[in-house]
Amino acid sequence: MLNFYWKTFLQFTRKIHSHIGRRCQSTRLNETISNSASWSTLLMTAGFTCCFVSNLDDKVVTYTMVSGSSMQPCLNPIGSKCNDRVLIDRSPKRNYKKLKRGELVIYRTTRNPDEVNIKRLVALEGDTVTTLGYKNRSVLVPTGHCWVEGDNHRFSDDSNVVGPVPLGLISGRATHIIYPPSRWGSLCRRFPHSRVKLNPCEKDTVSHLPDVICGIS
Amino acid sequence: MNMSKTWQRMFHTLGAAFIGYTILDSSIQISVFSGPSMEPTIQENDVGLVEKLTPYKKFQRGDIVIATSPDNPSIQICKRILALEGGRITSDGSYALWREKRVVPRGHVWLEGDNKDNSTDSRQFGAIPLGLVHCRLLAKISPKVEWLATSNIPVNSS
Q: What is the pLDDT of residue B2?
């Protein structure tokens, strides 16, 4: 990610710097002023771009590389030459109510806060989940929590291993695959209809969703 | 021309303001506290200076931290860390699972308010993942400036 930002930042600052330099060179009077002024302008542009990109990355949209096979075949399918990069939308951080079942989310893991996982959000509070390998066969998701699962259940460190995940740990929603170009496209919502029973107070908004395609066929 | 100098000044001022805001916003925060759960250390409507720079591994027992509530992600709670991962819990709580287990699991912390009788904390909802904790209180700035030391760990904790 750092490489990408560095290249964008260099191109951006060079463009602005040359544009401002051209304006300052319009008369001879400005020759002496422009030399010292242009260094500070360059620094300022550099700082501004860094801060702008950092704010954008943290609050609006970012991208990340997906590693591992827990979301196969949706992400990093077998036979793919390189890891997928996905576009992350940060709007769930501002309003958790906008999260929808079936979306791919990124969250800090409960066992290691420095690690971020990407999984599918299959159940929200009040839903009843029939688990795969969890200590309880059936779980009622508590308030403020959600249930996340990787599509490839056997190789997935998800709620089936650690239990319900607090919503506060979710830091974004993955909406599109942006690299490699052959795999461009949006990520659709999928829902394991057979294993999740919706919160009775909730209107049914998932019956139209396709079922999850599991990694092991 | 005078125009380009004015533009430059304006650009510099806006740029500096934006850079300053970003740096400050990512490192510190001024928070107003409400609720009785941290009395007498923090009273209702006190204002504090919190810092967001501590990495997860550097949080210590006795730190007063602000975390996202595990019951409601829109609410921030302010409590003291009483135990880190691997630590033992002896305080009596209604969260039966933790009373049995008595050890804070990996990646979690045990939070309690200083006002034991009037605080909803880990005794009710269990140890919370460190990923929910995001700031540490450095000092109170209202009603009077007080630097909060981390050595004030209540005597009756383990």
A: 55
- Considering only CB atoms, A166 lies closest to which of B1, B15, B132, namely B132
Whether B22 and chain A come into contact, CB under 8 Å, resolves to: yes
In the residue annotation, B37 being an active-site residue is answered as yes
Which of A16, A28, A110 to mutate against chain B (most B CBs within 10 Å)? A110
C-alpha Rg value of chain B to the nearest Å? 20
Q: Contact, A124 vs A149, CB < 8 A?
A: no
- Region of B17 on the Ramachandran plot (φ > 0 left; ψ -120 to 50 alpha; else beta): alpha
Residues ≥6 apart with Cβ < 8 Å to A120? A71, A74, A102, A103, A104, A105, A148, A149, A150, A151, A190, A212
Question: What is the model's pLDDT at position B103?
Answer: 86
Chain-centre distance for alpha carbon B43: 15
Q: Which one-letter amino acid corresponds to residue B83? A: A
pLDDT at B94 over 60: no
Rounded Cα distance between A152 and A206, Å, is 21
CB B139 within 8 A of CB B148: yes
pLDDT of residue A76: 92
Name the residue type at position B105. Answer: P
ipTM: 0.84
Looking at residue B150, what DSSP letter applies?
T
Mean model confidence pLDDT for chain A = 87
Q: Please identify which of the residues B31, B57, B58, B79 carries the catalytic annotation.
A: B79
Strand intervals (E) in chain A: 61-65, 85-89, 104-108, 116-123, 128-130, 138-140, 145-149, 165-166, 170-179, 185-186, 196-197
Binding-face residues of A in 36-95 toward B, CB within 8 A:
37, 40-41, 44-45, 47-48, 50-52, 54-55, 58
| Residue A53 φ then ψ, to 5° | -65, -40
Residue (of B75, B55, B74) closest to B134 by Cα position:
B55
Which of helix, strand or coil describes residue B67?
Answer: strand
pTM, to two decimals: 0.83
Neighbours of A10 (CB within 10 A): 12
Question: pLDDT-derived band of residue A8, with 50, 70 and 90 as boundaries?
Answer: confident
CA distance A106 to A119: 7
